[in-house]
């Protein structure tokens, strides 16, 4: 059966699942070695690094003896980690062997709109699609996932997602970078299971599907054994709706070295990292020999009587990943004081602001409108630096992600964001009622007829139409650029 791409039927239950908080402290058996998604194979010819991805159906065994129907790239669940270096041209051939049309979006990547893999780049069952672009951005942990309009939650929930690590030759050599050894991918997802092992679809909270069981890289109860004093964890919130409030079980500081779009200028310490769907954070774990700690999601602080992400499992306490340091550890070298020289922000801050825009999030609408594939909401001038004010005027949590862009959070509720949130981002968490001011820079590929997206990354909201579209054109063409496009039915 071929699914119709479109806005999902409103028959699904959207009542708030007002269940008691979950507390899994001491209840998770950490027995499964943390699976490490393999590095995707690639070939290099004529200066192009080529990867192949196949989206397909399969079965996975998350619970011993139970088989779960899942979808994955090149395997049954999740996908391999793609890795490339700044300046390289990459080509990814994606084959769709699913029973439904899908797309593959490169979340966090600067690339031409035709390569973005958003809802306009449909891959029908049995077809394939090839994306090619040159990596023109600093090192970062970006990721890829389906983005078919109205079906993103379902496709991601089945298991389609993977990491794309970008390296830069300027990265400090002192940072751990041996993949799977001291540089570890950590993909956090939540699911619920039926007794026969299939994924359950419980009633949605207002924020979307919130599961009661945590998968890390597809494993329940994962253990990571490290053999170095310093380990880098590249954490992705790959969940549909759940916001994690990360901390260590012994409350030691978290050292943050990077957020969504790249390294921080300097390492920053904090006790908690709030991570909403789609966001990434890179942290360092400095272990002592023989130590065991747990990466935990703590109940969120109350602000004005409300949790930061009310309705998204905000009061849950969840043990996510056990980290065990071996009895002897390879010593770590001192961290550099500066991770990257980053002059871009200083230069954009002094530049003439070219445009400022406002986005109001309410219900599942942005500026009172639902996504229309045919409507271009904004036309941007290539090379622009813009300030975007994003206001969550709703009583529930949302977040805000912009394709083909990276931004700095200038303020949240008129205050400076915490130090670890002052680097480059592509997704920002917006607790109920809060406003963020962003300084945004965009990739400069122009195409008047093919848009990029901005949207809430709570996948159910996105599917419901909490998304808008922008194009980039030459400055002189902004006024005459099309405000609507033809979309094949
Ligand atoms: Cu991660 Cu528009 O998506
Ligand atoms: Cu939302």
UniProtKB/TrEMBL annotation:
Coiled coil: none
Domain Plastocyanin-like: 57-169, 208-286, 360-473
GO molecular function: bilirubin oxidase activity; copper ion binding
Keyword Lipid metabolism in annotation: no
Gene3D superfamilies the UniProt entry points to: Cupredoxins - blue copper proteins
E.C. numbers: 1.3.3.5
CDD domains: CuRO_1_CueO_FtsP (cd04232), CuRO_2_CueO_FtsP (cd13867), CuRO_3_CueO_FtsP (cd13890)
Keyword annotations: Metal-binding, Oxidoreductase, Signal
InterPro entries: Cu-oxidase-like_N, Cu-oxidase_2nd, Cu-oxidase_C, Cu-oxidase_fam, Cu_oxidase_Cu_BS, Cupredoxin
Keyword check for NADP: no
PROSITE patterns registered for this protein in UniProt: MULTICOPPER_OXIDASE2
Family: Belongs to the multicopper oxidase family.
Protein's recorded name: Bilirubin oxidase
């Amino acid at each position: 059966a071929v699914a119709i791409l479109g806005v999902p039927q409103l028959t699904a239950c959207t009542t708030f699942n007002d269940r008691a908080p979950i507390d899994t402290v001491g209840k998770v058996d950490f027995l499964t070695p943390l699976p490490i998604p393999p590095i995707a194979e690639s070939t290099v010819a004529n200066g192009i690094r080529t990867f192949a991805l196949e989206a397909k159906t399969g079965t996975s065994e998350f619970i011993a003896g139970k088989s779960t129907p899942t979808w994955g790239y090149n395997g049954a669940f999740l996908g391999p980690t793609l890795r490339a270096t700044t300046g390289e041209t990459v080509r990814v051939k994606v084959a769709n062997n699913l029973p439904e049309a899908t797309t593959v979006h490169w979340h966090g990547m600067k690339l031409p709109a035709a390569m973005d893999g958003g809802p306009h780049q449909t891959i029908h069952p049995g077809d394939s699609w090839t994306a090619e672009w040159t990596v023109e951005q600093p090192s970062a942990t970006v990721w890829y996932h389906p983005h078919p309009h109205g079906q993103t939650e379902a496709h991601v929930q089945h298991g389609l997602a993977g990491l794309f690590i970008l390296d830069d030759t300027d990265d400090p050599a002192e940072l751990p970078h041996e993949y799977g050894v001291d540089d570890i991918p950590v993909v956090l997802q939540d699911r619920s299971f039926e007794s026969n092992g299939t994924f359950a679809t419980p009633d949605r909270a207002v924020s979307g599907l919130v599961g009661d069981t945590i998968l890390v890289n597809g494993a329940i109860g994962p253990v990571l054994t490290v053999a170095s004093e310093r380990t880098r964890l590249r954490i992705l919130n790959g969940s549909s709706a759940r916001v994690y409030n990360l901390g260590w079980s012994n409350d030691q500081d978290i050292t943050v070295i990077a957020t969504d779009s790249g390294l921080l200028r300097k390492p920053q310490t904090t006790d908690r990292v709030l991570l909403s769907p789609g966001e990434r954070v890179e942290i360092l774990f400095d272990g002592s020999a023989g130590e065991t700690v747990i990466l935990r999601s703590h109940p969120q602080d109350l602000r004005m009587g409300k949790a930061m992400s009310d309705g998204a499992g905000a009061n849950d306490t969840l043990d996510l990943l056990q980290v065990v340091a071996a009895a002897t550890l390879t010593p770590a070298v001192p961290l550099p004081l500066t991770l990257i020289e980053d002059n871009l922000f200083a230069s954009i801050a002094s530049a003439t602001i070219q445009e400022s825009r406002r986005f109001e999030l309410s219900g599942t609408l942005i500026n009172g409108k639902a996504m229309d594939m045919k409507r271009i909401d904004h036309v941007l001038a290539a090379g622009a630096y813009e300030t975007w004010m994003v206001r969550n005027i709703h009583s529930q949590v949302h977040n805000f992600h912009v394709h083909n862009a990276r931004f700095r959070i200038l303020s949240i509720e008129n205050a400076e964001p915490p130090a670890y949130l002052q680097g480059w981002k592509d997704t920002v968490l917006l607790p109920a009622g809060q406003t963020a001011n962003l300084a945004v820079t965009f990739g400069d590929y122009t195409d008047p007829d093919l848009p990029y997206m901005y949207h809430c990354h709570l996948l159910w909201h996105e599917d419901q139409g909490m998304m808008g579209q922008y194009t980039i054109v030459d400055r002189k063409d902004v006024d005459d650029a099309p405000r609507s496009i033809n979309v094949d039915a």
